[in-house]
Amino acid sequence: MKIRAGFTLQYECPQPTAMLLVLNIHPSRRIDLLSDQVLTFDQPIEAVGYIDGFGNACSRIVAPRGLTTIKTDFEIYDSGQPDVLPENAVQHDIKDLPDEVLVFLLGSRYCDTDRLADFAWKQFSDTPLGWPRVKAILNFVHHHITFDYQKADPTRSAFGGFTDRTGVCRDFAHLAITLCRCMNIPARYCTGYLGDIGVPVDVNPMDFSAWFQVYLGGNWHTVDARHNRPRIGRILMATGRDATDVALSTTFGPTTLAHFEVVTDEIPVS
Questions:
Q1: How many other C-beta atoms can be found within 10 angstroms of the C-beta atom of residue 129?
Q2: How would residue 204 be classed by pLDDT, with cut points 50, 70 and 90?
Q3: Per-position b or e across 30-51, b if 16+ CB within 10 A of its CB
Q4: What pLDDT is attached to residue 193?
Q5: Closest CA relative to residue 134, chosen from 217, 12, 27
Q6: Is-contact 57 26, C-beta < 8 A?
């Protein structure tokens, strides 16, 4: 199937401000593009692209004083198949993990493993290793946190989500990632597009989505604690330790997000 996706973002800057942007789709999905996916600006801005340490396609800009609009719009092919659950994938001993995977066992800015390790071992130590343990964590987080856009908090960590029991998709992801890491299952944060394809339309405005991946059986596998079911049409933008690494924009000065619009729609077959 084909999906049309894109966004319009506007930033208000009181002075010229350096910014790092993680707004391109992930390099692994570029092969599926049916049209160019490029960032456009309504100001004469030079964007310098680079690949960060996690393999994400990023951009560096200096936004001028005033209002800057950033857009992209593209079409992409998708298999139309739901996420494949790693039901038969084994959990690796830590000594057998690739070196580059080890960082996804460690605590990070929003995944405070030191504050949740005792709970995790008490709650999940009796579950079988591998997928059954991941599934138990997904089920717990899905029922423990109540989704509420009005309760979004960009400073909330996994422990904060655990105690507040409310939040948005990033809170579900952070808590589940942290519990997986506590149980020696490598887990990394993902951000991207996820439209209402194959499910009832969400009454809330379209937003970027957060989910995560676990490393089992020698591969990374997509899982989602918020929805807790396989979904169709994910378009990955970036992966990292947590939301810090995949922030849409990191600004080096005062900046206000003045407008935010995201589109992800299946293109009907003519």
A1: 15
A2: confident
A3: eeeeeeebebeeeeebebeeee
A4: 97
A5: 217
A6: yes
Q: Taking the CB of residue 199, how many other CB atoms lie within 10 A of it?
A: 13
Whole-number Å distance between alpha carbons of 214 and 86: 9
121: left (phi over 0), alpha (psi -120 to 50) or beta: alpha
Q: pLDDT tens-digit profile of 120-170?
A: 999 999 999 999 999 999 999 999 999 998 999 999 999 999 999 999 999
Residues 203, 182: Cα–Cα separation, whole Å: 35
The encoded tokens of residue 109 equal: 């800015």
Rounded Cα gap, residues 144 and 163, in angstroms: 10
With vertex at residue 201, the alpha carbon angle to CA 196 and CA 202, rounded to the nearest 5 degrees, is 95
User: 3-class DSSP state for residue 54?
Assistant: coil
Where helices occur in the chain by DSSP H, the ranges are: 113-124, 131-144, 158-164, 169-182
* pLDDT tens digits for range 87-130: 999 999 999 999 999 999 999 999 999 999 999 999 999 999 99
CA–CA distance, 222 with 189 (Å, rounded to integer):
10
Q: What is the pLDDT of residue 165?
A: 97
Percent of the chain with pLDDT over 70: 100
